[in-house]
């Protein structure tokens, strides 16, 4: 499928942790070797360095396996991810069950290095592998009346110890407006760091919407429904005052219980300073037009 978006973060931004910590030393050495302009860009822009495999896979939110950040890395291994299929239904020409292998065969995988910002104000930079959601929706054939896309996560209580607790109304549900879903930034991820997605990060297939707070990026998706109504979403159902349908990263609109103006990048070390949060998580040029004329304090 045609590429509609160019990544502003490149492989050069993927900085191994050792290099990240030694960047000054490295820069000094590179200058003499004439490699300064290549490596320099990557290491000097420290805000764009990716997090480590360890950080991305052991500090997770996947409440089906418990509410602790490390619970998913302990318990998600029990989730059976093969065979896997995604039911696509609602306002589509080709409703049905799409096998994961069948989806992979039809899609072109590419790498996307995205900033990832959680509503609790921590952030990471993650190299995802995946394909544009728009390409999957094209396969299903979106009908004219469709205005929203609803997603559901697997609900399998015997493999998911966390669903015993009514923290949210299971299955985990999320939704996007159709134009948000069709935006080329919106991907279905199948991997991180060039490897298949670990279970704790939402294997085998999860949504990634980089300009929205992390909870919109629903994991281990088994169902996608095209509708003409704004779909109910788990966090909005749990607490509508704190979690809106849109959940765009916005430093000017605070969560009712805390400021959203700054964030802490995971792994920055004990003395790492909080950094200012960017409008739409840094993707303003790509997505601001989707919300023209909307009061973002009201549609948070
Ligand atoms: N099914 C499901 N998807 C989910 C969650 C969850 O609890 N269950 N947590 C969300 C939240 S709050 C965040 S911040 C991200 C975390 O993604 P990561 O663990 O891969 O960093 O997943 C989101 N997707
Ligand atoms: Mo989150």
Automatic annotation (TrEMBL):
Keyword Metal-binding belongs to the record: yes
Enzyme class, UniProt record, top EC level: oxidoreductase
InterPro entries, per database record: MsrP (IPR022867), OxRdtase_Mopterin-bd_dom (IPR000572), OxRdtase_Mopterin-bd_sf (IPR036374)
Cofactor entry: Mo-molybdopterin
Residues annotated as domain Oxidoreductase molybdopterin-binding: 81-235
Record-linked Pfam families: Oxidored_molyb
Gene Ontology biological-process entries: protein repair
One Gene Ontology MF term: oxidoreductase activity, acting on a sulfur group of donors, quinone or similar compound as acceptor
UniProt xrefs under Gene3D superfamilies: Oxidoreductase, molybdopterin-binding domain
Superkingdom of the source species: Bacteria
Residues binding Mo-molybdopterin: 63-64, 118, 153, 201, 206, 217-219
Keywords from the named record: Metal-binding, Molybdenum, Oxidoreductase, Signal
Protein family: Belongs to the MsrP family.
Listed NCBIfam families: PRK05363.1
PANTHER family: PROTEIN-METHIONINE-SULFOXIDE REDUCTASE, PROTEIN-METHIONINE-SULFOXIDE REDUCTASE CATALYTIC SUBUNIT MSRP
HAMAP family: MsrP (MF_01206)
Complex formation: Heterodimer of a catalytic subunit (MsrP) and a heme-binding subunit (MsrQ).
Known role: Part of the MsrPQ system that repairs oxidized periplasmic proteins containing methionine sulfoxide residues (Met-O), using respiratory chain electrons. Thus protects these proteins from oxidative-stress damage caused by reactive species of oxygen and chlorine generated by the host defense mechanisms. MsrPQ is essential for the maintenance of envelope integrity under bleach stress, rescuing a wide series of structurally unrelated periplasmic proteins from methionine oxidation.
Protein name: Protein-methionine-sulfoxide reductase catalytic subunit MsrP
Source organism: Tritonibacter multivorans
């Amino acid at each position: 499928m045609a590429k509609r978006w160019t990544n502003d973060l490149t492989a050069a931004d993927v900085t191994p942790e050792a290099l990240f910590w030694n960047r000054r030393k490295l820069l000094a050495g590179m200058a003499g070797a004439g490699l300064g302009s290549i490596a320099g860009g990557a290491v000097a822009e420290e805000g764009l360095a990716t997090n480590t495999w360890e950080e991305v896979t052991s500090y997770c939110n996947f409440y089906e396996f418990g509410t602790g950040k490390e619970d998913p890395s302990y318990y998600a291994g029990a989730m059976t991810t093969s065979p896997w299929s995604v039911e696509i239904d609602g306002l589509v020409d080709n409703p049905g069950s799409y096998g994961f292998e069948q989806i992979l065969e039809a899609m072109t995988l590419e790498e996307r290095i995205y900033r990832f910002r959680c509503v609790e104000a921590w952030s990471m930079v993650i190299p995802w592998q995946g394909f544009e959601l728009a390409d999957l929706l094209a396969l299903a054939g979106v009908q004219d009346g469709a205005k929203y896309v609803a997603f559901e996560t697997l609900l399998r209580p015997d493999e998911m110890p966390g669903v015993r607790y009514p923290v949210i109304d299971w299955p985990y549900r999320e939704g996007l407006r159709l134009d948000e879903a069709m935006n080329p930034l919106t991907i279905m991820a199948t991997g991180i760091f060039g490897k298949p997605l670990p279970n704790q990060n939402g294997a085998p297939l999860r949504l990634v919407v980089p300009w929205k707070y992390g909870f919109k990026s629903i994991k281990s998706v088994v169902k996608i429904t095209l509708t003409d109504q704004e779909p109910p979403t788990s966090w909005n159902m749990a607490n509508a005052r704190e979690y809106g349908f849109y959940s765009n990263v916005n430093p000017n609109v605070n969560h009712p219980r805390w400021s959203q103006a700054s964030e802490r990048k995971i792994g920055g070390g004990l003395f790492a300073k909080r950094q200012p949060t960017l409008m739409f998580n840094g993707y303003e040029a790509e997505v601001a037009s989707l919300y023209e004329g909307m009061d973002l304090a009201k549609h948070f």
